[in-house]
Amino acid sequence: MARNTRLVVVALWLALCAELSAQTLPRSRVGPLTRAFRGLRNVALAPLEIPATVARQSARRGPVYGLLAGSLEGVGNGTVRLAAGLVEFLTFPLPGVEVPDYTKHLGDRALPPIRPPLGITKP
After folding, report:
1. What is the pLDDT of residue 26?
2. 69 within a domain of the structure (yes/no)
3. What does the pLDDT look like over 77-92, one tens digit per residue?
4. What is the span of the domain harbouring residue 26?
5. Do the domain assignments include residue 28?
6. Which long-range CB contacts under 8 A does 109-116 form with residues at least 24 apart?
7. Which of 34, 35, 61, 79 is most deeply buried (CB count within 10 A of its CB)?
8. What is the rounded distance in angstroms from the CA atom of residue 66 to the CA atom of residue 72?
């Protein structure tokens, strides 16, 4: 009984999404199923950011630095990818919501490095 109820709910949800996107989605935008699968892809790839970033940092600056700094940066990259995937997946049926695509490759820096402001001078 519970399985049938879940199937009906999922079917109604998909029908509602299709109807909303057919009514209000211009042709130039991405469809809701594409956004849903992109979101699921980013959620699935989020844990792989740690080893990919460790490998990138190890190749650039050596294995010790890669293991220490790459792990921390990989956790940050994975968190950003996970958040982007969740937002895109949770908002895929809403036709008016524009979420930018997270298109970074595994191991690429998700956020710019933290640097002090340029106008600060030493006393």
Report:
1. 45
2. yes
3. 999 999 999 998 998 8
4. 2-90
5. yes
6. 109/73, 109/77, 110/49, 110/76, 110/77, 110/80, 110/81, 111/76, 111/80
7. 35
8. 10
Joined tokens for residue 110: 């998700």
The answer to whether residue 27 sits within a structural domain is yes
**Backbone φ, ψ for residue 65 (5° rounding):** -60, -40
- Number of helices (H), then strands (E), belonging to the chain: the values are 4, 0
Give me the amino acid identity at 69. A
Against a cut of 0.70, is the pTM above it?
no
Amino acid occupying residue 106: L
Question: In angstroms, how far apart are the furthest CA atoms of the chain?
Answer: 73
Distances (CA, A) of 64 to 68, 88, 113: 6, 35, 20
**Burial class of 85 by CB neighbour count within 10 A (0 to 12, 13 to 18, 19+):** buried
How many structural domains compose the chain?
Answer: 1
